[in-house]
Design brief:
Layout lengths: L26 E6 L9 E2 L3 E7 L5 E8 L5 E8 L15 E3 L2 E5 L4 E6 L5 E6 H4 L15 E3 L2 E4 L8 E4 L6 E5 L10 E4 L7 E6 L4 E5 L5 E5 L13 E3 L3 E6 L3 E8 L2 E9 L10 E3 L2 E6 L1 E6 L6 E5 L9 E4 L3 E5 L3 E6 L8 E4 L12 E3 L2 E5 L3 E6 L1
Antiparallel strand pairs: 1-32, 2-3, 3-4, 4-5, 6-7, 7-8, 8-9, 10-11, 11-12, 12-13, 14-15, 15-16, 16-17, 18-19, 19-20, 20-21, 22-23, 23-24, 24-25, 26-27, 27-28, 28-29, 30-31, 31-32
């Protein structure tokens, strides 16, 4: 990152990971659920917030649990009838802003909810207010983002590709025209040193781009050689004003960012081309899961250093990383290994009985890990 910049918090880096994993998981609590979930979990010291569906699958259900006990504190339901590929549950991770949680359903219902009470502070129907011109087979997927006091979401309509809202009341601050929504999330990072502006970086339906966070103006766009990317993995800002991008049709690319100008391509490679998993970067190595666990060189043209196969790995896995450890949330298991370039999985712990991917991104608060499987959400003491 640029000096003094703490980063967007969506790149898989965390402050702490354990030195080992016990043979059996230590559950603090377990809370049963009616539906598998795709959206990530937002956790504070007091609250656990996530998107769900009601038992009949007719309504979005935004739910809040007590972080200490797993007891349900409140749920907010909104009618959302339809049929999406891979189910109808919310894809976006809720965003905790002060005493509120901002939740987005897959059908476009954006709801700001008071954490202590479950009362709705404000809400907006993105699909109704900002109609899109293309079909959304997976619905609205990008997670809300807070930038310089503005709430950024991507309706993807021709007149409002991105919008900025006041998080206190939902008032529109700006909207900018452009392309349809991607299936991934945006990040925020400063423009190069010497400027005070902040830019929003990410994908629309068919290009990588940057927008001025103050005004919404599009700063630049990069259209990849091959079309048709889902654009699910999150862009990763790196030191030296660089940006790491990976997609299923265009592989992994490293860009040099320039002030208000199209970035320069520094390196590209097609050995790593995940359709969903976001990489993590530790030192000069890139780690990502796509059937294998890949390790790429950040300094040698994104060349593949190695890849390993494991029965717990499939086409998606979330990775949490520190400077020296990797925790991989694989198919029903946690895998722990050193981030020193070694290829050995040192510890493993089975959390869920079913061998299926955990699509909901986990949350780590202190030494507690919050995971959502097919039928329950659990809190683990690491």
């Amino acid at each position: 990152m640029w000096p003094g910049w703490r980063g967007p918090g969506r790149d898989g880096r965390v402050a702490w990971l354990p030195e080992s994993l016990a043979a059996e998981p230590q559950f603090v609590w377990r809370h049963g659920l009616d539906h598998p979930g795709l959206g990530g979990i937002a956790v504070s010291e007091r609250f656990v917030v996530f998107g769900d569906r009601d038992f009949g699958d007719f309504q979005d259900e935004f739910r809040c649990l007590d972080a200490e006990t797993g007891e349900e504190l409140w749920s907010v339901q909104r009618l959302a009838i339809g049929q999406l590929d891979y189910g109808n549950s919310p894809r976006a991770t809720p965003l905790i802003v002060g005493n509120n949680a901002v939740c987005l359903g897959a059908f476009g219902r954006l709801v700001c909810i008071a954490l202590p009470t479950g009362e709705v502070v404000w809400e907006c129907d993105l699909a109704a207010e900002f109609p899109v011109s293309t079909e959304l087979p997976w619905g609205y997927c990008g997670s809300p983002l807070l930038v310089d006091g503005k709430l950024i979401v991507a309706p993807g309509s021709p007149e409002a590709s991105l919008i900025a809202l006041d998080p206190a009341d939902g008032r529109i601050i700006w909207k900018t025209p452009g392309g349809g929504p991607s299936h991934g999330s945006l990040v925020a990072l400063p423009t190069p040193p010497g400027t005070k502006a902040v830019m929003i970086v990410g994908h629309d339906a068919d290009s990588l781009g940057a927008w001025n966070a103050a005004t919404g103006a599009r700063l630049w766009a990069v259209r990849p050689p091959a079309s048709g990317d889902f654009n699910v993995p999150t862009p990763i800002p790196l030191s030296g004003e660089r940006l790491l991008i990976t997609t299923e049709n265009n592989g992994t690319r490293l860009f040099q960012l320039r002030e208000n100008a199209v970035p320069t391509l520094l390196a590209s490679g097609h050995r790593l081309h995940p359709d969903m998993s976001t990489p993590v970067v530790v030192g000069d190595r890139i780690y990502c899961v796509n059937e294998f666990l890949y390790c790429l060189s950040l300094t040698d043209g994104l060349t593949e250093l190695w890849r390993i196969r494991d029965p717990a790995l499939s086409d998606y896995a979330a990775i949490l990383a520190t400077d020296d450890r990797l925790l991989i949330v694989a198919d029903g298991e946690l895998l722990l290994m050193n981030a020193d370039g070694s290829q050995k999985i040192e510890f493993r712990q089975r959390v869920f009985a079913a061998d299926v991917p955990v699509f909901s991104h986990p949350a780590l608060v202190g030494k507690r890990l919050y995971l959502r499987g097919e039928h329950e959400i659990v809190c683990l003491q690491l």
